[in-house]
Write a structure and sequence with these properties.
Helices cover 74% and strands 3% of the residues. The chain is built from eleven helices and two strands; from the N terminus they run ααααββααααααα. The longest helix is centred in the first third of the chain and has 28 residues. The two termini are 35 Å apart.
């Protein structure tokens, strides 16, 4: 226990953070690992999803509508990006990377112009406050994040690893021509998978609004987190991304409470250690 804070609380806070980071990072794992698209605008989509969800929820008072709007808006934006700017991105990954870098700067600048620098926060009243479990006090919203994160992990893992759609994508990355010979429109499937990745980025952005809020610099910070987690977990591995996200979340919370001056560097120290020991990531 540290200054009255039970270790159990720190671990649960880390789990809540880790599962929230998983939703962001799994979207990048899909676009980067499965589709071969290094999407540098992923953090910006996270930030825009947070803003859109925030305004919808604040206007309507509905957390569910905020979640739906953040996912749907960024999925649609992802479709527009994939179809107009980075079509056949896996055939020219460098070009796609440069385009998404430009898009990142554009989206971040637009956010600053539209919403300014202040951080905005909103949370549903029924998820505010704390709850006592086993004599220990927890924040309601962080327990909610654990539940939602676990459910969404199960859904994403099943879609990517256990469905025909996911199998087609993984096969098409290695042999697009063979997949299309079998009558599958690979580009359509890749666009739908890209939409899933960008939609998850927007959804995770809104889930962070009640915890840390959103401002125009949020995107670049979480982009670095997402890339580090995907590298630690192993490209293409959803289970590896989950393990890395949870490890990072718990590590961040422990360092914040015990040695706060290394909190920002802890993620990248972990990434360096994993790369030295297992260059292909913990799940490969």
């Amino acid at each position: 226990m540290l200054e009255g804070i039970p270790v159990t609380v720190i671990i649960l806070d880390g789990l809540a953070l880790g599962l929230s980071l998983f939703l962001l990072s799994s979207g990048l794992a899909i676009t980067f690992g499965m589709l071969g698209v290094v999407n540098f605008a992923h953090g910006s989509l996270f930030m825009w999803g947070a803003y859109i969800g925030y305004y919808v929820a604040a206007k309507t008072g509905s957390f569910a509508l905020g979640l739906a709007s953040s996912f749907a808006s960024m999925a649609l934006l992802g479709a527009a990006i994939k179809l107009s700017l980075i079509r056949n991105a896996h055939e020219n990954p460098l070009r796609a990377a440069m385009i998404t870098i430009g898009l990142m700067f554009l989206l971040d600048r637009l956010a600053l112009i539209i919403w300014g620098e202040p951080t905005r926060m909103w949370s549903p009243s029924y998820l505010e406050g704390t709850v006592e479990l086993g004599g220990v006090i927890f924040y309601k919203y962080r327990l909610f994040l654990i539940i939602v994160g676990a459910l969404l992990f199960a859904a994403v893992y099943a879609m990517v690893s256990r469905t025909y759609f996911g199998v087609v994508i993984r096969a098409g990355i290695h042999d697009k021509e063979m997949v299309e010979v079998l009558g599958v429109n690979f580009e359509r499937a890749a666009t739908l998978m890209f939409m899933l990745g960008t939609g998850l980025a927007g959804l995770s952005g809104f889930l962070f609004v009640p915890w840390i809020g959103v401002n125009p610099s949020t995107g670049i910070t979480f982009l670095l987190y997402a890339f580090a987690i995907v590298v630690i977990g192993g490209v293409e591995s959803i289970l590896g991304t989950l393990a890395a996200s949870v490890a990072v979340g718990i590590l961040q919370q422990f360092t914040m409470y015990y040695i706060p001056w290394v909190t920002e560097a802890a993620l990248f120290i972990l990434m360096l250690a994993v790369l030295l020991a297992r260059p292909s990531g913990i799940a490969r």
